[in-house]
Amino acid sequence: MNQPTGEKRIGKKLAAVLLWLVFWQLGSMAFGRSFVLPSPVFTCKALLQLMAQPLFWRSCGITLLRVAAGLALASLLGFLGAWAAAISSWMREILSVPASVIKSVPVMSVILIALLCLSGSIVPTFVCFLMCFPVMYTNILQGFDSVPAEYRELAQVYRISDAKYFGRIMVPASMGYIRAGLLLSCGLAWKSTVAAEVLSSPRVSMGYHLLSAKMYLDGPSLFAWTVGIVLLSMLFEKAVRLALRRW
Question: Rounded to the nearest 5 degrees, what angle is found at the Cα of 208, between the Cα atoms of 202 and 210?
């Protein structure tokens, strides 16, 4: 079977997007209440109006920084935790408890507990880190565990130090799992960060403006901010994919 060309793939994606936009328009017309379900045209107009305001870009930048900081911290500590668990059975047992518990706790519970202990501006980054850490830790540890035992035996035969074995053999052999963990965490990072911003309500954030639009029954602005979050999340994930290809 012939693989579709790049133009055909783009054409299919555009057709799918247009189809869902038509469904959205029909749903808006059937509902008849623009403040609840605005049409794509109203949403696009609202988004363009928001983009003309400096506060929109400032809010996008702050939320993006929170997502990037939380994901970077989760990746770093997840990597270090997985490395410690790979060389120590005690550390594996100790870290398995928080990793399992955090994966099972609802995001809203984490946010509400964090609000009791931290200031509102720090909560989104902390929640992002906490929700992404188990994903990164589990994936990276699985990658380390998947390295064949023969590699370790060869390293001992050629007298390769533990540091070189880890950096030149274990990490490259686990890159597939590390990439998978990062890509899985991208969407989770945005969802958890924005949800934390909605509840903690730091004034300069995309989540705060979502809450404000809902409180004032401003449906077009609510959908416009949502579209902005989705687009920014997609661009963020695309940037991570491009960075991983070069790594």
Answer: 170
